[in-house]
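[job 0412] stage=fold_complex status=start
inputs:
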Amino acid sequence: MPVAPLFRPIDVAPAYQKVADAIEREIVNGRIKPGDPIGTEHDLVRQFGVNRSTIREGIRVLEEGGLIRRDSSRRLHACLPRYSKLASRLSRALVLHEVTFRELYEASMTLEVASIEGAVERATDDNLAELDDNLVRSEAVVGDPARLAECDAEFHVLVAKASQNRVLQLAREPAAQLFYPTTEMIVTGVAEGGPRLVAAHRHLIDAIRYRDREAGVLWTRRHLQDWRRGFEKIASLDRSVEHMYMEHAQAARRR
Amino acid sequence: MPVAPLFRPIDVAPAYQKVADAIEREIVNGRIKPGDPIGTEHDLVRQFGVNRSTIREGIRVLEEGGLIRRDSSRRLHACLPRYSKLASRLSRALVLHEVTFRELYEASMTLEVASIEGAVERATDDNLAELDDNLVRSEAVVGDPARLAECDAEFHVLVAKASQNRVLQLAREPAAQLFYPTTEMIVTGVAEGGPRLVAAHRHLIDAIRYRDREAGVLWTRRHLQDWRRGFEKIASLDRSVEHMYMEHAQAARRR
DNA sequence: TTTTGTCCCTTTGTCCGACAAAGTTAAAGC
DNA sequence: GCTTTAACTTTGTCGGACAAAGGGACAAAA
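[job 0412] stage=fold_complex status=done
writing structure:
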């Protein structure tokens, strides 16, 4: 028969973890602000009273979590985690879980429709200017599938940004990162793929500009359906998406 | 005046990063499967021909990314990244970006509605059994806000699981993790909060069981609106959500 | 005045060797 | 056969070391 609990579990995390936790706490509760320097490794050695190897392991943890980074001169400072970096962890996880194309498509439909609805409602002139600029660049590379795919990815990021909802922005990113590499394949494989894509973007920008929600949703749906039809030509919907990641990971490494 | 760029930056990743990349590649492309042992640090020292400190820094990177973990005996093995762990990185990021309650609420509305739609369409008997079980446990703790909040969080995870869409499951998680701690406050602060919450869950399970999409969407909306009304009593919608994270992070540490 | 070369100091990335604590394995004892 | 004990292994941490690269200051050159 278990005795009544008298003691709480002791915190027995390894030292490098405690170092990481301590710095994380200072950043999250705002005592260290994004951009603030963290100090040199030697400083941290002195402050925490542990070995430099231990400090360095703690730094790796925070760096991977996107809370701190090294600037050009390799000095440490706090920073706001970048969505795209965090999202790439998630994309990787989705690949490892062998999600199917259907899952990806359905979720993206939901998320992109929500994005456009938000954008129609709340886009600013600045947002529209960015979208217009993207459209011009897209038109210029309509014959170059790789570049066009890049513009397409950026376009949808801009739409999400125009929705003024960062939770949504972040939620759609992992799926979008998996989409992106296949766009290129589809633009290549489908006749009139490029022009159709650019035309859809134009309609979407119009919908945002004139705050026409119906049109926005309609063209988002069409845009994604086009993309799906392109995909169906090269694979089945139940197929998992592992090859998408391979392309994406390579691109990320080149960056 | 800057000259036109002639050379691309050379790839000079530090050794610990290369170690991490190499192991990640083997895991992602499937040569190392989830559960497979990675070998001891000494093994890796031999294989990569670098110092153990370097290996350990690489391990921290992978560990933080959720690709490898140490089992009870601290041996390294590959594993499938856990959504909830990755999502907590994102929650943290959302807090640091100081997202407002409005952003969180809107995105959650979208994601939870999509979840229930998927669940209504595709839930299995197993999913329903899990939901029923959750309901029973919720009813048992309806007077205990902390436990009830825990059950509520689990309930929505189960609904998302029933949608059979892992992309959606993952996309909703970061927002849900921020929701969770406030549920407790709301159940405490709002009269009849607990019973209303359980009643909504009951309706949602019915909707899933009888594949009644309308009812599912309706009750999800109501459920979230209830939650929002509770929140409005204690703060404004434009308020950012930092306090939610503090609670959540503490809970995570206790785990 | 702006660029280039040089010197010095700091910081990072990496290496080596070491050791206590905790876990594992295998032998010894009942 | 089961438990205890005694090696052995592995991890977490430590101390010190060194080369390479960055930053700053300053003088020489264009």
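[job 0412] summary: Residues 12 and 116 of chain B are 48 Å apart (CA to CA).
[job 0412] exit 0
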